[in-house]
Design a protein that fits this description.
- By secondary structure, this protein is mainly alpha-helical.
- It folds into four domains: 188 residues, no CATH class; 110 residues, no CATH class; 53 residues; 174 residues, no CATH class.
- 49% of the residues lie in helices and 4% in strands.
- The protein is built from 29 helices and six strands.
- The strands form three sheets. It has a two-stranded antiparallel ribbon with strand order 1-2.
- A hairpin with a 7-residue loop joins strand 3 and strand 4.
- Helix 14 runs antiparallel to helix 15, helix 17 crosses helix 19 and helix 26 packs across helix 27.
- The radius of gyration is 27 Å and the shape is globular.
- The N terminus is likely disordered.
Length: 670
């Protein structure tokens, strides 16, 4: 154990001695082998391999390349040649912005003779607001961000967008990751009057929430809330399946069930807190409408306690009817606060069932990372989540920096050095380049926990600039079919949001507005009818808002937009560490016959018609917009043959545009 972690435990012991603490539950013991798992070990101080030969001096641009080239040589492999400039600008722009580069941007980069041309391109992309939008959506996937509760009622959270905007702004400002963690876990404990920190603390409320008008099991609901708060800490920050220890000791990793509930103890004081931002007049008007309804609902709930089960159903129907009459919630910031009077005593629960309470526990981090018999903090400890955040962001914590450095690597190369980014336990994979992972994590911490220096290190490398085609493909596939050693760049299909945003950009429809309330778009009425409360799906009146980037579309748990769903948009009930990429027939049907693709194809056609060009120029321009490159002679010939009979007819051009949307050069990044 590193010295600073030991000091953390020592300071915790002082607090415990100064206050009454629950009787500690049996700790269990940790076998030496459990503590030896690679991810639980301190990070090694690594020096990049020394490669002094002429070929290495030419290829190595950043220390990242030394690790990659050294490993390739040991396996008898070599890197692919560098990709051409058109490929590189398209790759970089999608990687950092999630959008295609314009023909003008491509020409400027291709014709830039400066030796700093590539570096300048990286800096321009990193300094754009669109960088935060693209990398913000990665984080929102990890923390399973959504704007509704999920489950049967799926109640809308109209002000949850504030957290999304907080994430985008934090990433654009290159906020240190340790500060980012502390603000989300304990922003309210830092400064309850600071709006930004209050919104950040809404991280603790991002999980799905089961609501029921007639639910009398308050303890059950509270247990689920605490479970959500605890599990996401393990998945997002620690890269560990902590939640698997809720019902019993973890089957594979050294996480005791008692550890799980000690982690949950940090949230025992945490309660939801909506900070209303409406005017006093608006609040008074709302209260006048809501108070009599709430009073009647309270009375009905009390009556249920004495009713037999068969009669409760009728009361629940009345409660649901009254709930639908409630006025829309006032504009608010979704935050949390500590309530010691409402503190939830935490016990080890048999099989995770709130009805079967075992020994009480206090707060404590995962025991396998602490000294044997490390003490607990009592429930009433001041600023408990701050203490959890301090443990997680300790510079010497073995997991935190590794997990985030790996996520950054993954989003650049398509797969992480650890290919199971939310599972660093025994059922996860070992790192393909362990020294490289530790070196990157060390650089991350030493660089002030900032992401942009890590981006630059990776993006400037020769490893990132490789072509997606290799002259040694056959040999390399035999030795490393998954390309874990990075002997070429991984070609990837665009994600759902990137496809939609690209069609908007290419067709000239993209609304570049940033931030603000999320957009509800027009969808099939049949889908709305299936919702518990269809009246709450109200499409945004300003139609131009419907053409905003996908990150600003509503994230509703029980209604993933059909286009997004068919292209593997994640289920927001759970943390998504890496989006799946499937290939199936409904995707082709959606891109050829779907309403969205056809509407955007028509707008693309109108754009081509509005720009006065010859047929040959029009074909070339269309290809450059959609694929980032000029068409080949064969592609020009095929397009000319198709358009020859109606080069100025909207319907013909629309079909041509639709074909471009369905071609691999549009859908894939090399």
């Amino acid at each position: 154990m590193r010295r600073s972690l030991a000091l953390f435990v020592s300071s915790a012991a002082i607090v415990v001695m100064a206050s009454d603490s629950p009787a500690p539950a049996p700790l269990g013991t940790y076998k030496p082998a459990e503590r030896r798992h690679w991810s639980l070990q301190p990070r090694k101080q690594v020096t990049p391999p020394v490669l002094d030969d002429a070929a290495a001096k030419v290829w190595v641009r950043t220390p990242v390349d030394r690790f990659i080239l050294d490993r390739l040589r040991k396996e008898g492999l070599k890197p692919a040649p560098e990709a051409d400039r058109i490929t590189l600008i398209r790759r970089l722009t999608y990687n950092l912005h999630g959008l295609p580069p314009t023909p003008e941007e491509i020409d400027a980069f291709v014709n830039d003779k400066s030796p700093q041309a590539y570096e300048n391109l990286v800096e321009r992309l990193l300094s754009s607001h669109r960088y935060g939008e693209q990398w913000g959506h990665h984080w929102l996937d990890v923390v399973r961000f959504a704007e509704s509760d999920g489950y049967e009622y799926d109640t809308h959270r109209p002000d949850a967008y504030r957290y999304r905007d907080y994430v985008i702004a934090s990433i654009n400002s290159d906020k240190p990751y340790d500060q980012f963690i502390r603000e989300q876990l304990a922003g309210d404990e830092t400064d309850a009057s600071n709006e930004t920190l209050a919104i950040a603390s809404g991280f603790n409320r991002l999980g799905p929430l089961r609501k029921n008008a007639g639910n009398q099991e308050v303890a059950s609901s509270r247990t689920e809330v605490l479970t959500e708060m605890t599990n996401i800490v393990g998945a997002a920050f620690l890269g560990m399946t902590v939640g698997c220890a809720r019902c019993h000791d973890h089957k594979f990793d050294p996480i005791r069930q008692s550890d799980y509930y000690r982690m949950q103890g940090y949230f025992a004081q945490t309660q939801a807190h909506d900070i209303v931002v409406a005017s006093p007049e608006e609040q008074a008007a709302w209260k006048a409408k809501a108070a009599p309804i709430e009073a009647e609902m309270t009375q009905l709930r009390r009556s249920m306690r004495k009713l037999p089960e068969e009669e409760k159903a009728k009361v629940i129907e009345k409660l649901e009817a009254l709930d639908e009459k409630m006025p829309d919630p006032l504009t608010a910031m979704y935050a949390v606060k500590n309530e010691t009077k409402q503190m939830t005593p935490v016990h080890i629960l048999s099989r995770g069932d709130y009805r079967f309470k075992g020994a009480p526990v206090g707060m404590r981090p995962l025991g396998v990372l602490l000294e044997e018999n490390a003490p607990e903090l009592p429930f009433d400890t001041s600023k408990p989540r701050t203490k959890l955040a301090e443990w997680i962001t300790d510079p010497n914590h073995p997991l935190t920096a590794r997990v985030m450095a790996n996520r950054i690597w993954q989003y650049h190369f398509g797969q992480g050095l650890v290919s199971t980014p939310n599972d660093y336990g025994r059922m996860g994979t070992r790192p393909s380049h362990p020294e490289s992972l530790d070196w990157l994590a060390n650089q991350f911490v030493e660089g002030g926990w900032k992401m942009k220096p890590l981006h630059r290190m990776i993006l400037m490398s020769s490893a990132y600039r490789q072509s997606s085609r290799s002259p040694i493909e056959a040999l390399a596939m035999e030795k490393d079919s998954e390309n874990k050693l990075l002997w070429k760049f991984n070609r990837r299909r665009l994600e759902a949001g990137e496809i939609r945003d690209s069609m908007l950009a290419i067709s000239g429809r993209l609304n570049a507005k940033t931030g603000g309330r999320s957009v509800m778009t027009l969808i099939d009425p049949e889908l709305i009818k299936d919702l518990k409360r269809p009246q709450y799906w109200q499409p945004t009146k300003d139609k131009s808002e419907h053409d905003r980037r996908t990150i600003y579309m509503i994230y509703k748990r029980n209604l993933i937009l059909p286009f997004m769903q068919v292209f593997d948009a994640p289920d927001t009930m759970f943390s998504c560490a890496r989006r799946d990429q499937s290939t199936h027939a409904p995707q082709a049907l959606e891109m050829m016959n779907g309403k969205l693709a056809n509407v955007y194809a028509e707008s693309f056609a109108k754009r081509l018609l509005a720009e006065k060009r010859t047929l040959d120029e029009r074909i070339g321009h269309a290809w450059r917009l959609a694929a980032g490159r000029a068409p080949t002679p064969a592609e020009v010939k095929s397009a000319m043959r198709y358009l020859d009979d109606g080069p100025d007819q909207l319907e013909v051009l629309k079909e041509f545009a639709l074909v471009l949307f369905n071609m691999n050069p549009f859908l894939y990044v090399n």
